[in-house]
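Much of what follows relies on a compact textual record of a protein's fold. An example makes this concrete, so a full record is given next.
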Amino acid sequence: MLRWAWRLFRREWRQQLLILLLIVVAVAAVVVGAAVAVNTPPPADAGFGTAQDLATFNLTPTSKSATDSPEYVEAQTALLARRFGTVQVIANETFSVPGSTQTYQLRSQDPHGPYGGPMLRLLSGHYPSGADEIALTPGLASELNLRIGDTWPLGGKTVVGIVQNPQSLLDEFALVPPGQVTHPTQVNVLFDVSPSAGKALPTYVTTPGANNNNVINPSTIVLALATVGMLLIALVSIGGFTVLAQRRMRSLGMLESMGATDRNVRLVLEANGVIVGVVGAVAGFALGLVLWLAYRPHNEQSAHHIIGMFALPWNVIAPALVLAVIATSFASGYPARAITRVPVVSALAGRPAPPRQIHRSLVPGVIALVIGFLLFSVSGASGNGGGVIWLVPGLVALIVGIILVSPFFLALLARVGGRTPVAIRLPLRDMARYRARSGSALSAISLGIMIAVIICAVAVARYANVFDYVGPNMAANTLNVYSPPTGPTFGPNGQNGPAQPVPSEQSQVSTVHAIASAVGAKDVLELDTPAVGLQNPSEAGRQWDGPIYVATPALLRAYGINPSSIPSNVDILSSRPGLAGSGVQLTFGGGGKGGNGFQGLGAGGNNYNECTPNQCLAHPVVQEEGRLPIGTSAPNTVITDSALDRLHLANQNSIDGWMVLANRPITQSQLTSANSLAASGDLSIESKNDEPTSAEIVNWATVFGIALALAVLAMSVGLIRSETASELRTLTAAGASSRTRRSLTAVTAGGLAFLGALLGTVAAYVGLFGWFRSNALEGGVSDIIDHVPWDNLFFILIAMPVAAVLIGWVLAGREPAGIGTRPME
């Protein structure tokens, strides 16, 4: 029987190719997804090296506390050494990168110490060994424009090597031998706690992995998704194995007529399913491994730490491989049991078993959706991330609801099309008759659409929050140049020092114009910050985030706004959609600047909606101006000169910096030149970050949902239509044209696509309504009602079904050569 099953697999590989592709793609996705998900977060032992414990001491040079003194650190280090044995001390002193807001650390560490080996990696040159030698990380060397052999400007040391921290590629530091950092701002002590030392440890001691006991982690999430994916694959695969059993019905009938038992027949088909699962799992693992090896260098750059070549989460991959075999074994079990119920004579005649009718009530599916709604509500009501654990059962409930309601809507669609032409009525009726298979395909499509719609809706709602603004900070052709701080600073060795002399305004302006010339700028705008702020009157909602600048005539003209066109009663101009109708309040009168001028918001019990006279304007006139920039650090919200006059703040503005507008996107070489110029003038620069826009997130989510839906359709429509091959032969004998045959496939694809898009969208919004209605911080249900991604929903609900119809029509093909006769096997 097993040999016959292997022969069946080899001869019918084309009919099982779709199932194999499903398994291969799913297993490969699990391998790559699990590897990325598990390896992207920083390692649990990052900062510990090979040590089991870490003592951290943060030193403040200006503090008078005894616990902030170097003597205290030395005493505690000696105590740890006496109590636990070997220790390794790593001292750090923080510096600022000239001309930038970035910082780095001067680090004294023994490269060959007992514990710190995994925290250092030599890329070129050699480790520093003398007091006049230093090694730099690649990023810091680039920022300081230094190479091996150059002199470090702050200490006269020679650069002898390029190093990095493999556990954190964002860790920018300059490495010196132990003892060369005399005024550290942080001291780390690595050591191992012996089992006999007891559990009483000082509060400054931490242990790797102590806070990683949460069951909701990347491994469990990927494994849960793999389980759901394999379940859906099993449901979709039932149709493929059913078609295979029908094609081999005469052979199986002959096998039974020769004395084979029902158990022998089931063994043939179930063994065939196991073979498909094993081959698909092995091929999928091989494909996933190749993809992971190709993507690993890019993952290292995005994860910012070194990842081992074969650092695969076997606790996720091994169960996924087993699940792949179980899924195909389960999928082949249904037709194996069904084929044994066919009489031997009918099997020898090639008569297929009548389709199994599913008379399922809509009520269980609706109950599951309601449970999902309630679980999402509980998750939204649990603040500070505590509700994440309720999202998993909520998603499971939504998936179960989709699976349970799918057969009902297939039957409903058949009833709706009961009076349509035969080319439409027949495929709709067939989907209802064979909904044991078409229902699973519909569930898979709906699941993909549900995930895509949830991502789209949440992204649009989050990015549309007018108070807590998120997204890119500025355009690619823009630079913000900031003045140096005027407060007290510390000397080069961390000791107390007087405030650094601030360059004159004339000198700063001269440097800014040199920067503008280096990047090919067309405008240089002063960024004036008044002592005003904005506040959300809702106590539970998000509060204002971002700077507020003065709407100077030069700034307005730079963005094509005529200052004389602004009504005199307007207080605020903003490009943030919805700010005008948000009930925002304007605060002023000694509350600070740059959006921090909140009054009456302390711990004394005052509400956000209180507006103190002479310190707050309850109803400022806000005008939306789409020509202002939308970046979070750009002047997206400005206060007018007339409002400053009314509030008597016209002479209280201060120049916070300048905005440089170039003619085209600023290149990396131009940015390097600008940083050098800024450093020479004691200024700092902010350039465009890598934050994605809302459009990028929702568009990619839409592409994912549509691609998944079309892939499931491509693998399901052919199976569904093959089960009705006898009816197609009857239609052909009655004179049906190729147009009719194409219509059958097109309507099948379009019907499944439309129902899947509709059910997935409804299920997504069931969960979203539950989450947003209980989460006041996000603005409540109005957030998703007012910010519906209509364009993306159009592509999902309208364009995708239309595309499915067109693809089904085109790929239906010409009449097969043997369509007029029943094939002999």
Summary: Confidence is low (pLDDT under 50) at residues 487-499, 590-608, 817-821. The first strand starts at residue 53 and ends at 58.
